[in-house]
Amino acid sequence: MQKSQIHSTIDWDKPGKQHGHLYIPYSYNLAGWANLMVPVTMLKNGAGPTALVLAGNHGDEYPGQVAILRLARELTPDNIRGRVILIPCLTIPASKAMTRLSPLDGKNFNRVFPGNASGTVSEMLAHFLTTVLFPLADIVIDIHTGGRSMDFVPCATMHLVDDLAQRRKMIEGTEAWNSDIAFMYADVAGTGLLPVEAERQGKIVITTEMGGGEIVTPAVHRLTQNGLRNVLVHFGVLRGDKAPRPKPVRWVQALDREDYRFAPESGIYENLIECGSGVATGQTVGLIHFLERPDREPVAVTANAAGIVIATRGPSLVTQGDCVACIAHDVPAEVLG
Amino acid sequence: MQKSQIHSTIDWDKPGKQHGHLYIPYSYNLAGWANLMVPVTMLKNGAGPTALVLAGNHGDEYPGQVAILRLARELTPDNIRGRVILIPCLTIPASKAMTRLSPLDGKNFNRVFPGNASGTVSEMLAHFLTTVLFPLADIVIDIHTGGRSMDFVPCATMHLVDDLAQRRKMIEGTEAWNSDIAFMYADVAGTGLLPVEAERQGKIVITTEMGGGEIVTPAVHRLTQNGLRNVLVHFGVLRGDKAPRPKPVRWVQALDREDYRFAPESGIYENLIECGSGVATGQTVGLIHFLERPDREPVAVTANAAGIVIATRGPSLVTQGDCVACIAHDVPAEVLG
Amino acid sequence: MQKSQIHSTIDWDKPGKQHGHLYIPYSYNLAGWANLMVPVTMLKNGAGPTALVLAGNHGDEYPGQVAILRLARELTPDNIRGRVILIPCLTIPASKAMTRLSPLDGKNFNRVFPGNASGTVSEMLAHFLTTVLFPLADIVIDIHTGGRSMDFVPCATMHLVDDLAQRRKMIEGTEAWNSDIAFMYADVAGTGLLPVEAERQGKIVITTEMGGGEIVTPAVHRLTQNGLRNVLVHFGVLRGDKAPRPKPVRWVQALDREDYRFAPESGIYENLIECGSGVATGQTVGLIHFLERPDREPVAVTANAAGIVIATRGPSLVTQGDCVACIAHDVPAEVLG
Amino acid sequence: MQKSQIHSTIDWDKPGKQHGHLYIPYSYNLAGWANLMVPVTMLKNGAGPTALVLAGNHGDEYPGQVAILRLARELTPDNIRGRVILIPCLTIPASKAMTRLSPLDGKNFNRVFPGNASGTVSEMLAHFLTTVLFPLADIVIDIHTGGRSMDFVPCATMHLVDDLAQRRKMIEGTEAWNSDIAFMYADVAGTGLLPVEAERQGKIVITTEMGGGEIVTPAVHRLTQNGLRNVLVHFGVLRGDKAPRPKPVRWVQALDREDYRFAPESGIYENLIECGSGVATGQTVGLIHFLERPDREPVAVTANAAGIVIATRGPSLVTQGDCVACIAHDVPAEVLG
Amino acid sequence: MQKSQIHSTIDWDKPGKQHGHLYIPYSYNLAGWANLMVPVTMLKNGAGPTALVLAGNHGDEYPGQVAILRLARELTPDNIRGRVILIPCLTIPASKAMTRLSPLDGKNFNRVFPGNASGTVSEMLAHFLTTVLFPLADIVIDIHTGGRSMDFVPCATMHLVDDLAQRRKMIEGTEAWNSDIAFMYADVAGTGLLPVEAERQGKIVITTEMGGGEIVTPAVHRLTQNGLRNVLVHFGVLRGDKAPRPKPVRWVQALDREDYRFAPESGIYENLIECGSGVATGQTVGLIHFLERPDREPVAVTANAAGIVIATRGPSLVTQGDCVACIAHDVPAEVLG
Amino acid sequence: MQKSQIHSTIDWDKPGKQHGHLYIPYSYNLAGWANLMVPVTMLKNGAGPTALVLAGNHGDEYPGQVAILRLARELTPDNIRGRVILIPCLTIPASKAMTRLSPLDGKNFNRVFPGNASGTVSEMLAHFLTTVLFPLADIVIDIHTGGRSMDFVPCATMHLVDDLAQRRKMIEGTEAWNSDIAFMYADVAGTGLLPVEAERQGKIVITTEMGGGEIVTPAVHRLTQNGLRNVLVHFGVLRGDKAPRPKPVRWVQALDREDYRFAPESGIYENLIECGSGVATGQTVGLIHFLERPDREPVAVTANAAGIVIATRGPSLVTQGDCVACIAHDVPAEVLG
Asked: Residue F111 and residue A27: Cβ atoms within 8 Å?
């Protein structure tokens, strides 16, 4: 495979704590020889597994960025057994611009894997993860939220991987996040996801949807920060006692394309179902209103099947085709093993 | 005063129900002789007061727009005693663009009163309200939320007007919204507000902050829609029985400049206090983190005084000087009369 | 009145031919001490009236700009009796950007009269016309088209001024353009027009709508260039023989607000009536189609009254409130005198 | 070949009439799990050929979009023999933005064939046409106009395909549009065209240039709508009687690079030749004027050879290298067979 | 005069050192209750004059911003006799955007004096300077450079004020900057300048043009920082010994409109005269080249009169009307007194 | 290799002087059938080598564009021995927009080699150079500057090629530019450079960094123009006498990644070292100041090793990762041979 052009100031084998950067070369109109500098903090102390902890895959998802910035500042090598690599923000230009996609290349970072050593900035970084960082790791944690566009019941999430041993470890790790709900999802919208590449390499991959919308409540910050620490304790990378679950987990999944409800027309969306509530088959989950024509009947969006509304539209304004609701269903016991 | 250039297709004296528009003349590059058409629905039935019901003062505040669109479609003249004038959206170009300010003239509609008959589109419409619609009205209701930029404890709100009779009616109307909290606010950020002009004309003015952020929960939609109907019933414009308060109102106020806490530096804001919770003097309400420098200590924002956090910052990204928290205090009994 | 800050390199009293500029001082980010340079060509030869010939009032109206550029290059002092002042383009930044409004200040130049000596670039130039150029002139010619946004039956146009002597000269001048149709118009969309200020100063004001849309046919260029020359011959400023009318003029007017038909909803407009054709009362002049909903019935726009369609919408895409048709009616004989 | 990620709600084998959509998955900053929804209407009734009818290949070409929206609403299965698949707009984001290229990916849809299943939105849709829709079709109709940038003599058009049987059917189908002129064109500007891929699959491909500029006259709408119906009748897909040609067709072609005349310098273009008129070799077809320098001689553009001007520049403002005229020549009889 | 809405956290009478801010209230789409926070540092120690030191009047002029940031950090009250008020950047949004004009309101801050208490952000700040800060000051120092658009011989500058006592003190202060050249300038481009208002209030006003272009050399930083300190020492506000002039000052002026040379046409400007060199009357100072037409003769710009070129155009690309050279002349001895 | 779609109007074999263009086909929203026209001037006279002379690789680097425009106008075939192909600007849309990257496709032209016949405009032109123009040439000259973003000691530059004969000729040609310093550089920021492809084809490649920043002094214009002529004389393409070096050349190189110093944090950069001066190991070369926090200590950038500062940052505003200094070292004698 082609060699990465990215330069790292971190020595991956050195014990102790390092703050450093990945330097991704690029040009823009105000700097011909520039580097996008991606902060990395690494702590290493003795033998043990390696956890790679990531956030800011999408720029407008901040709870994970804050959680990792806190860990990067607060942890000392004494807290660690093995190695933890912390990257608070993968798509820095998007985080600075409050956008999902990178303003540098217009890419959705979670659709460019396995990446390209001579591609755009996003593709170069994906390639670096694929060829350098994933091979170093045993556990890969990628912290998402619904971002600006979707609200989510705060939950840890995972793919249904085929390898049963890998699946078992991922289920246990997901449950260690201590969210009330755990969500098993399918990729209904494209390919090239970060977790798919990490799973392909056999890693234990833990992801999340820590709420959504631009507002982050203190409760969501706490769940993100505590959950992350607990998962690291669970896997033995962070020393300390594992926090017990406050209540038993409920596993749900949305694997059918029809579980994702899309706006049939552009307008102002009125959400009728609280995120996390149940719906019956055919129930109206929302209405689209038309500002230019107050006399026009609103258009209804209905549930395809009974279940729990795991996610709803963020902004009230919708464009035809935007996802306005995701309806999840209990995971059959046999899947969980 | 100068005559308005705005043309209305509504006959303000005609009984029954009319859907019509205000035509505000303007030019843009794709239409030389264009009108911004502002939808108005009017219902009139016999003697009684006139209520002017407004939303979309700021484009990115949708609960009131939805509530009025529903009323405009659902009400019939039989439901009315007197007259109700419904304008679901005052700043349509901003609502279509999901912005607070009008993209047509860059104006904050709530800072341009009393308006200007030959000014920009926002100024022309403010002038029309000042000279045509406010004089028709007894009650003026202007439904706000925190918009994209702020989260609010959902509450009905009012100014502390000097005229005691006017104040008493406004307090009663505000309480009729049935929000748990009612908020008395001062204008710490500029002049030219819509309610100030309506109050100057002696109207009973009821305003709200129906939550905030881009996500609108069904609970907030319900509070907006039910509260609005209840206020109209309270004033006798809408027929029906007044809904009793679910619990006694708590009146709070934020009249001191220091009650409004601003970001001391640009960065990623982590909100530490749940909207609606109490804080102690000097307590840290939030932290500002720095993505370029994970090693740098975050900067704390603290409470100036004990109270209840009535509003918090919406997006995690803050620019120096953005309001990140508003701390309110119980209103002295003598103010409420 | 305040003194203009605009500097002119033309000597208004000097015989012969001069190419010069008006220098309007302004700053932009790439030049702190800049001038918008507006080209002016002047020819003077002996005694006679002064004609001020203008185009580019709106930047996206090119036939007049081309006609005046040709005259400015081709005329010699021998062709003149008196004085002709030629300004091919009043709003140069808009002409360069293909827009109606000036990109420098967002102004519609035809709404800023009488102007302001210390205002924006458009206001400063309007003030210069009001205080320097109109007083020099006997005849003011301002060549318009429908621009990008409207199509027009190519016609010379005028306001119905009250002064009967002035009106008579304007009617004769308008007819000298030799367009088949002459159009008497009212100002239904705002104040501050260039011709209104020139008329107020008692000038003979001739305007036009030389077709529209972005495409300019050779026939429209010829009508613009020949008509302009013929009007100048008619008033004795240009030497030569006056061209006879190819056919008798038809005078029409659209003085009622309802003559202007606006799009009731945003969508794709299908124009059903050829510009220049007759319509009956209530006839459908166009349909608005909805791309997101091919099953939805189109919305019809109808004629308020019988007449001739003097202008139709340019682009197929319409926003609610855009003018889609203007219906004109024969001018009563007594008005024409 | 790679499987398309596009989901269709149409059952291609089901008799009767269906309104549905193609769902093209994509992300944008306001919606992470969005679909571009492309409306499709299908009618099927018994045995017979399949016609695939397309418009909005370029977003700013509206006559075909309107014609197909009308057919989609008006047709019933009784009108059909075989199957007709109607897509009123291939590049919806461009149609909504009044642009030629898609604002989503900057692509010219008519340059991305055969497409890419994991490419941009335009590439994914081209791939779906190539792998799913073209194989279903016998006849492919793609309705173009000159869009905003060019004016055309309204005409049906085709490529000179090598297969003589295919060519014969295409000539007959092209003539069935009943435009006065039929135009045989070469691809002088790039590769990746929609018709080339359809022709490669052996389909009968009929295209058009239904005028141009942003203004669409009722005559052009009628020619588009009547021509389209007549072609469908000609091929037996639509029941009814074929309309006879109003006058014999004139076949012209522009196969030489020099038939396309480009602006030698940026400026204001004055078109001197009416679209559809003849020109002599060396004749001046237009002049470029310079607004900053009224004294400078205009630059002439001349005809390379005698012929008919089949297309001219739309906007008056030209950038160096823009096509300002296309000169066509009679097709030799032997080509037509 | 109207009361300012700007809130200051500085106590103007308190001895010692304070870092604080001016809070200018405004709204933008991401923050409804925001303040533009303008940093101010004040040092006060005993009796003595007050110096108000300003930079960032234009956002793209950085040497003064850096010099004041250094002083604000480095100075202690012991260094001071009297009071010094330091504002490193007046137009912060422009400094962050690298622009001359404020991106918040499009204003040139140096054209909005005396300001407006209820105007835009720039106007509100100008009003605060006019009504609060200038009255506190004896000496007003406003540090400019040519910004992005012009290069300057680094020099201290002043207006030729009428009051001879004021003029004398300003001449002495200007000379204390120790630049080789001192420049006396006239306002040929508009009104509303900061120094004019300060001079009107009788203040000793010292300004500069510390080079220009985006590159700031260490020599220019040193001249700015040392000159500023020396002027403060000269007026007794800063303790220490005054640095002697390295060589005698040369006073020049450009008071005639023709001293400012403007680009006669848009193109690529080739500067032929080194900034600071002499020119003869009629000498070519630059050439404008045309990229689209390498065969076209360049257009020359010539000197109106003999003198020294005190400033030249920054970027090579010029738009018609941009200033490309400023030619200065020795100041007559009698003016200097 | 795929055939280029670019059409050239130059006959590469014809003696004499030709002005012509390369036509690169593309579409944009205002022109469907457009060509980017790249000016080329060719002079040919008898036997001799071919020099290909290029500038405007990056749009914001003007000295080479001016030098070649002058040569293109001034040279006659008599001046030539062999052939010279002059392209004043490779990236015309960037030159017109004052940007480094092409606004048409966002590409850095110096990173797209060897190009792509069916790619974007930049890629198509790179492919044309690779497949058509480089094969015609013996000497390839590509004139750069630091552009807007970097300042450079004006110098001729080259890569250290492996082929010793090629290297020797390149050293001699580089020295013939008569700059005081000659710079041997490594490609630390990406691949796909123009000179790398030309060198791969065995050409003698001469490049430059003729200063930088937006201001171009007359001295830099002279060095560019005289150096270019002297190199052409040196290789025998231009007739005339070779100018002797004004002083002996100093050869420096920056081949280590650490020679390039990047901004560790965003802020206002104060450059402390004059371009061309020496620095010691660990010396502070610049400071980053923080406008929002005048009390915060600036962050220092230090020299990794002793050397000469060959280049410094252009604009004062820096984003984390921008190059702020490049430190060069004397080239070992054995490298120069």
From this structure: yes
Instruction: Enter the tokens of residue C45.
Output: 């030869």
Fold of E256-336: OB fold (Dihydrolipoamide Acetyltransferase, E2P) (2.40.50)
What CATH code would you report for C7-253?
3.40.630.10
Residue length, chain E?
Answer: 337
Maximum Cα–Cα distance for chain D, whole Å? 70
Residues of E in contact with B190 (CB under 8 A): 5, 25-27, 118
Whole-number Cα distances in Å, F158 to D49, E118, F171, F178: 66, 59, 8, 14
**Distance in angstroms (rounded) separating the CA atoms of residues F91 and E235:** 53
Contact partners of A by the rule of 3+ C-beta pairs under 8 A? B, C, D, F
Residue of F nearest to B291 (CA): F265
CA–CA distance, C193 with C113 (Å, rounded to integer): 6
Find, among E261, E266, E254, E257, the residue nearest to E303 by Cα.
E261
User: Which CATH architecture describes the domain C257-331?
Assistant: Beta Barrel (2.40)
The answer to whether the beta carbons of residues B214 and A214 sit under 8 Å apart is yes
pLDDT reading at D111 higher than 80: yes
What span, in angstroms and rounded, lies between the C-alpha atoms of C158 and C173?
A: 10
Residue E244 CB partners (closer than 8 Å, separation 6+): none
Q: Best interface-test mutation with B: which of C323, C324, C326, C327 has the largest number of B CBs within 10 A?
A: C323
Task: Decide which of 1.10.3720.10, 2.30.30.40, 2.40.50.100, 3.90.550.10 is the CATH code for A256-331.
Answer: 2.40.50.100
Fold classified for B257-336: OB fold (Dihydrolipoamide Acetyltransferase, E2P) (2.40.50)
Tens of pLDDT along chain E (337 residues) come to: 689 999 999 999 999 999 999 999 999 999 999 999 999 999 999 999 999 999 999 999 999 999 999 999 999 999 999 999 999 999 999 999 999 999 999 999 999 999 999 999 999 999 999 999 999 999 999 999 999 999 999 999 999 999 999 999 999 999 999 999 999 987 766 789 999 999 999 999 999 999 999 999 999 999 999 999 999 999 999 999 999 999 999 999 999 999 999 999 999 999 999 999 999 999 999 999 999 999 999 999 999 999 999 999 999 999 999 999 999 999 999 888 7
Q: Where are the beta strands (DSSP E) in F29-72?
A: 31-45, 50-55
Domain D256-329 part of CATH 2.60.120.920: no
Nearest to D315 among F7, F30, F35 (CB): F30
Q: How far apart are CA C332 and CA C327, in angstroms?
A: 16
Return the bridge partners of D55, or none: D143
**CB-CB contact of D195 with D140 (8 Å):** yes
SS3 string, E298-323, reads CEEEECCCCEEEEEEECCCEECCCCE
Which helix (H) or strand (E) segment holds residue E87: the answer is strand E82-87
Q: What ranges make up the beta strands (E) of chain D? A: 7-8, 16-28, 31-45, 50-55, 82-87, 139-144, 150-152, 155-159, 181-185, 204-209, 250-254, 260-262, 267-271, 278-279, 284-289, 299-302, 307-313, 317-318, 323-330
- pTM to 2 decimals? 0.96
Sheet of strand C284-289, all strands in order from the earlier edge strand to the far edge: C299-302, C284-289, C267-271, C317-318
- Please state whether beta strands B50-55 and B82-87 pair in parallel, antiparallel, or not at all (unpaired): parallel
Q: What is the pLDDT of residues D223-273, one digit of tens each?
A: 999 999 999 999 999 999 999 999 999 999 999 999 999 999 999 999 999
Domain boundaries, chain D: 7-253, 256-329
Rounded to a whole number of angstroms, the distance from the CA of F50 to the nearest CA of chain D is: 28
Task: Give the integer Cα–Cα distance in Å for F228 and F240.
Answer: 13
**Residue of A266, A292, A320 lying closest to C320 (CB–CB):** A292
- Burial letters for D196-207: b for 16+ Cβ neighbours within 10 Å, e otherwise? bbbbeeebbbbb
